[in-house]
Amino acid sequence: MCWQHREAETADTNMDITKGRQVLPKNVKPLHYDLTLEPNLETFKYEGTVSIELDVIEDTKSISLNTVDLEILETKVSAGGTVISSSPKVSYDMDSQTTKVEFDEVIPAGSKATLFHKFTGVLNDNMAGFYRSSYKTESGELKYMATTQMEPTDARRAFPCFDEPALKAEFTVTLIADDNMTCLSNMDVSGEKQVNSKMAGHKRKAVSFNKTPLMSTYLLAFIVGELKVLETHNFRVPVRVFATPDKNIDHGKFSVDLAARTLAFYEKEFDCEYPLPKMDMVAIPDFSAGAMENWGLVTYRVVDLLLDEKTASASTKERVAEVVQHELAHQWFGNIVTMDFWDGLWLNEGFATWMSWYSCNKFYPEWKVWEGYVTDNLQSALNLDSLRSSHPIEVPVKRADEINQIFDAISYSKGSCVIRMVSKHLGEDVFMEGIRRYIKKHKYGNTTTGDLWAALSDASGKDVERIADIWTKNIGHPVVSVTEDEKNNTIHVKQNRFLRTADVKPEEDEVLYPVFLGLRTKSGVDEEVTLNGREGSFKVPDLDFFKVNADHSGIYRTSYTPARLEKLGENAKAGLLTVEDRAGMIADAGALTAAGYNKTSGLLSLLKGFDAEPEFVVWGEITARISALRSAWIFEDDKVKTALKAFQRDLVSSTSHKLGWTFSDNDGHIEQQFKALMFSNAANAGDEKTQAAAFEMFEKFIAGDRSALHPNLRGGVYAAVLSNGGEKEYNAVVKEYETSTTADERNTALRALGRARQPELIKRTLAYSLSKEVKEQDIYLPLSGLRAHREGIEAFWAWMKLNWETLTKKLPPSLGLLGSTITMATSGFTHNDQLHDIEEFFKSKSTKGFDRNLQQSTDAIRAKTGWIERDAADVEAWLKANKYL
Ligand code: BES
Ligand code: ZN
User: Aminopeptidase N-like N-terminal domain: which residues (predicted)?
Assistant: First the structure.
């Protein structure tokens, strides 16, 4: 269709489809919403009225706005202070999720108008819009609260609105509820009065909140429920944590203190006051994502906000800190300055991800979080981005149902990698100065990626757009191949598109990135060397030692010759490489091996040489790469699988035995995680000592000695006893799940269930995930463990096919949770016939809402098929030569 055609068509539809986006017509612009909502926690319906003040941009005879699953009872249009239509024509378009209001009188451009709706809706069970969430009281009574999740496009489920991030307005909210309820919204309370409630048949309170600053609809929130509170005055404005009465509110202490300190820190870093009069953070029993940055009213999964330091592992504590600091970063980056449209989502999520690392590093330097960045965000980014079905960081999203799917490792992790690369290139201080200018300039406005680069250029005097734009506009990343010329002391480097499936077509390999080579030699790191074209040669002081991509701040893989890789292994032992270098180099070798750039035997030898590695983060990458290999070989011959397991056992056991599995107060944050990692890897590889220890601790623990099983080891021990035990252990872990009181303990137990392999127990795990014991938000937890064994992978997929209807009812495709469950159910396969079976199943179904997940999953299977075909014999030969076969 030619574009003129499209323009012509726009006139008749509810939508404006310029730029290919399905957006609202631009004839009016919202200025202020006066919104009143009254939820009924018995019928789970709610009633509402909204009065929207509008700026009329063009002569107007119709107004379109977003609604989903709302019943509009009454509509009035006013202009110049008088009602011009009290029964306008109201029609609905399902596809564009819009209600269109048409009237006879023309409201002239330049005037103000008001649109009034009275409506009702249902407090749904889908964790989207205005929804209900439940909890059990101590006496076992099921109780409900009402809460919201608007991002990305579900504010339209809660009330009629102009639901686009650029249509910022002010909001005055009133909530009507019984007197014993806590009512919360983005702002502080302006007043409370008693009103006659027709709905309740008795008097109720109407709680009004002060008018918000200019803000986007997706950041709005309101909550009604019986809540407990914890408050601190350590910050300029009150900071509070809320939870339902079944939770221990004291577990909010860590987060509330951290939040107060973080807000103070961010005010300084951004040189901009937190503009709201309070910060509330609420633990919601049913929550689809991890947390949501609603302005002044941040909502969380219980496990990501409440922390019991006595029963939580070190990694859980780090996760809570990450989530809190991430959401608070959004209060500036996202809430004060907002992306113009969803194709700029990465600005929000990439930055908040980077900022949470930046602030965590300032608050807890001993955690050394930047070391872990290389094995965490950098690997997630490169992993997903090595698939043909990846997408550019700035991705065009046209329709609401496409938006949920881009909350992925590209927007978050690759986005944050670009930020990290740019901040290292400019220097963190200069970078933060650019961020301050960006916030000052665009306060209460909307931006595109170019605005960020402009502010950073302004602060640095460098052309940031030139080096950064290419990374956000294009799909994929390069592999840089390094060869050496000994005679001339030079290295030759060449960049090509990297695909895990090893089948790059010439037309997919046209983008040439400015690659910062970060050349590490004995004389330090040369940050200036940049590869600007396809290939180039660079002098190195001494070929005896060099490494490219120092600390892995560049977004690419480096492919060395086998001899150089071996040499780098020795350099690592000799202490010439940083933790980031070692972990990153192993990750690159692993990824390149899986894609056929080098032989798996070379990777195995490299890993073998790391047996004396002293650092946690590096071991994290070593074990991840062995797991990736074992997973790719999971449907292969048992003999080879057993041999690979034995290799892992040899590699990890001695370090695990050396570190031990007892904990003392002297153990640092990293050491605790190190012990846990090595223990679970040794046990998982069949090491007798750790397995025996696992069973011993478990026995004592379930017999009532809670101190016998340290929180850091719980996940590893559950996995070990369920993989090797039977029904008795299974029942005990189920009991742990059902009787533990903290969300962290419960999740650890639930997550482990899938590890059990006996057919009967696999059946129980599958059935349990859909039982009433497991909330929709957690369905994926018991299922996730099934991916650890072939019986589980097969049973999970067979079960998904059989239970498709039930599953999609519980997890609607428009929600992110279904997509990730599909990824889990399918990505474990490795063979062509399995791939065909998956494709066959979905052929007859609409894949709207999870088509990206599916493509990525099938791509990942193809990559593994190729890896096995290429290297099955090579792996066997290496295992034989090393006496494992
Ligand atoms: N804005 C997101 C929440 C979100 C995610 C809304 C997906 C809609 C769809 C929030 O800021 C976020 O990124 N939360 C993360 C946690 C964070 C620490 C990475 C999450 O939910 O996992
Ligand atoms: Zn976020």
Answer: 29-219
